[in-house]
Structure formats: C-alpha cells, structure tokens
C-alpha cells in the first residue's frame, strides 16, 4: 500500500515545479514577445527606408549592407554568425545553453541590415537566438544550474518562433522538437507552451499583426486524396533534401575558399545582384509576398524553389545574418505550386501542403509542422498535412538544415545507431537481416531450390 505522506510529498513537489516554471515561462514570454515586436518594427522601418531609395542606390546598398552585417558579427559577436536557430541548438548541446549577451543587439542589428538591403534570409532564426540569449541571461541572473538553464533557453526558442509566425502552439512544439531527431523533451512542454502563447499575445498587444491564411479549398478525405498526400510527401521530401544539400554546398564553397572575410559579402552581394538581373527581385528579402501569392494560387516560376535555396545559401554563407525557416517556407510553397502544375491538383492546396511538409523534412519537425498547418490553414487540413509532413520527414533521411541536431533515434528500424551524436557526425549502419533485397534473395533461393527438387 502506498504511503500517503510520500504521495503528498510528490504532489507538493510537482505543484512547486509547475508554479516555478509557469512563472519563469511567463517572464520569458513577456521579454521575448516584446523584443520580437521591437525587432519586427525595426525591420519594417529598415525595409521602408531602403525601398524608398532609387534603384541604382538599392543595388549599391545590397553588397555594402552584407559587408556591414558580416563585419558587425565578425568583430563584436562571432556567435551570431549564420542562421540563429542552429547556433542556439549548438549552444544547448555543447555549452549547456550559455549564450553571450552581446549576441542579442548584434544579431538584431545585423539581421535588420541584411534583410532591409535584400539579403535572402528569414526572421525567425534571429528572433529565436535573441529569445534564447535573453533567457540565458535570465538564467545567469537567477544562478540556475545547467539543466534549468537549458530548459529556459528552449522556452526562448519557442517564444521567438511563436512571436514571429503567430503560431503559438507550433512554436512551443518546435522549441522542444528541433533539438533532437527521434526524441522530445516532455519535461519542458509546459513552460514551452506558456512562453510561446505569452510571447504571441505580447507581440499582438504591441501591434504585430499576422495574415490569415484559412484555406477553403481543402478536399474531403478520401482514398484518392490520401494517395495524393502520400505522393506529395515523397515529392516534398525530395525538395527538402535538395534544399539542405544546396545550403550545405554554398556554405562549404565559401568556407573552403581562401577568401578574405571582407571580400566574401561583396562576392555574395554580386551574386545576388546578378541573379536579380537575370530572374527579377522575387528571391530577395523574406519572400513573404511570393509565399502569399503561391497560397493564393498565383502563377509561380517552376524552379523558384531552387533559386531561393541557392540565394539563401549565398546570403548566409557570405556573411549575411538571418533565419532559415522563412526561406524554407518559401521553398515549400513554391514547390507546391510546381507539384500542382504536374498533377492538376488545386495549387492553393498543394502550396499549403508544401509549405509545412518541406519544413517538416528540412528541420525534422513533423509534429510542429502539422500543428502549424492547422494554426495557419484550419483544422480540416490536419489529416492530409500530417500524412504529407511525416512522409517528407522520412524521405528526407538523416539530414537537416540544423547540423547540430542530435540524432537520438533513427527514422526506420532498418538502421542501427551507435550513439546519439549531431546529425552531421552520426554514423548509421543497416540491420542486414531486415534489408529488403537480402530477404528477397534469401526467399528466392529457397523457392528456386524447392522448385528444382519438385521437378526431380
């Protein structure tokens, strides 16, 4: 029989933990939501100032802006280099969530400059890194141990994602799903939800507005549409794989070439200007207007998703600052338009599926992507979005736009994992007895031998 005193002690301990983390997440949500609102206002101001300049001056500002951004990061806060979420994941796994306070102003300013002049990047990664920096500083003030610091930093990631995209539940899940492949931190779920919801409402109260994307073209669930969702998941999984490889290739090219740090952003800016001269300004900046156009069923160039991947890779590799999720949503929505043109399905529906499925595959976050689809497009899309997202997640394999993600569990039982390691370093081997070809060979030999015996 259970000891009632011990049970009461457990209940009181749980109550204390819930109260403690509720209050901490509330503070984190308020701080990150307010900072996100300030960041978005500053970004709008920067884009308006650059957009008002003559065309020839805007062309000059692009490489100069990338150079300014790169030098800010290089001189003042090297931790702020690249896309923010990757650096936060790295900090959680390798430094117990410790993030320098200098990252916050440098990342904010560098990202505003990069995006304002037309750099092809996103806004969620910097906000996640800024949010994580704020919560890491809060943990230092409160003298938290490493485990509690990491929890608070995860709350910062969730709050930043929720405040930027206006998806509080998806933001909360993203923060706890993005750290590992095949594992979730359930003990951080409550504070992540609280911080995400509070950050979203704080940003809303401070004047941030989010576009409504409710779809009215979602088909009823049927056998044929389940098959189409399965096919779409396979297609978007391949698109996510291409997106990851293109980003990785551009990063390697810029890193491996013996180019001076100040010259890289000028070369990157020249590539962006050349692409703009050839293909138009569609691929510069955040690209939110193109995402909205794809979701509205407008005509989209067939290879828009590949060009966006390439120019995003160039922007981030040459020294620009920004996130990776918004470009990934661009890649997903525009590849959805291509899938619709190939299959004859409604382009609005396919773009919505692509937007979330490519995110699920590239970031290894199928649950967050599915919930994001529901928050953006309505609950009716949930079954088809879930199927496409999970299939894309599996098809993409053990790769990620975040190389510091820890591979905790393989995506299929056919693989064996030695030990949990960053996805860029993890080593997998096959369970040979489960390989399809081996089994077919084994049964084929038995049938063949049996047939010969029967013939005799």
Features:
456 residues; mainly alpha; Clc chloride channel; 2 domains; three-stranded mixed sheet; two-stranded antiparallel ribbon; 17 helices; 3% strand; disordered C terminus
Short description:
The protein is mainly α and 456 residues long. 69% of the residues lie in helices and 3% in strands.
Overall description:
By secondary structure, this protein is mostly helical. The chain folds into 2 domains: 202 residues, Orthogonal Bundle (Clc chloride channel); 184 residues, Orthogonal Bundle (Clc chloride channel), CATH 1.10.3080. The strands form 2 sheets. Strands 1-2-4 form a 3-stranded mixed β-sheet, with no helix packed on it. It has a two-stranded antiparallel sheet with strand order 3-5. Helix 1 crosses helix 4 and helix 1 crosses helix 6. The chain is globular.
Topology:
Layout: H1 4-51, H2 55-76, H3 84-94, H4 103-116, H5 124-141, H6 146-165, H7 168-177, E1 180-181, H8 189-205, H9 223-256, H10 263-279, H11 288-295, H12 304-317, H13 325-343, H14 347-363, H15 366-377, H16 382-395, E2 406-407, E3 415-417, E4 421-422, E5 428-430, H17 436-455
Parallel strand pairs: 1-2
Antiparallel strand pairs: 2-4, 3-5
Helix pairs in contact: 1-4, 1-5, 1-6, 1-8, 2-4, 2-10, 3-5, 4-5, 5-6, 6-7, 6-8, 7-8, 7-15, 9-12, 9-13, 9-14, 9-16, 10-12, 11-13, 12-13, 13-14, 14-15, 14-16, 15-16
